[in-house]
């Protein structure tokens, strides 16, 4: 195992309407079709399909999460790019 792993990776989350985030992160969690995928810096290259669920991430500026409705992600050791749709907000009582 290499001691030269970076401390962060670049996370980009893109929807058809806008760029949601483009920042350095320490970790992220993505809703894969078969369950949650955890991502840390230096993760092996991977392409995954996303299901409906929560994207959560933590970086030097704090943590955040939001709901998505499918898509896909390209994971590389230094960068993660997510193409998705934001999940529609649920209305109270529905």
Structure write-up:
There is one protein chain. The mean pLDDT is 91. This protein has one domain (9-86): F0F1 ATP synthase delta/epsilon subunit, N-terminal (ATP Synthase, domain 1). The chain has no helices and 7 strands. Helices cover 0% and strands 64% of the residues. Strands 2-1-7-6-5-3-4 form a 7-stranded mixed beta sheet, with no helix packed on it. The protein is globular and about 40 Å long. The chain starts with 8 loop residues before the first strand and ends in an 8-residue tail after the last strand. It is mainly beta and 94 residues long.
Task: Give a quick rundown of the structure.
This protein is mainly beta and 94 residues long. The chain has no helices and seven strands.
CATH level 1 name: Mainly Beta
Instruction: Please tell me the total number of domains.
Output: 1
Termini gap: 50 Å
Q: How big is the Rg?
A: 14 Å
Strand count: 7
Q: Quick one: CATH superfamily?
A: F0F1 ATP synthase delta/epsilon subunit, N-terminal
CATH topology: ATP Synthase, domain 1
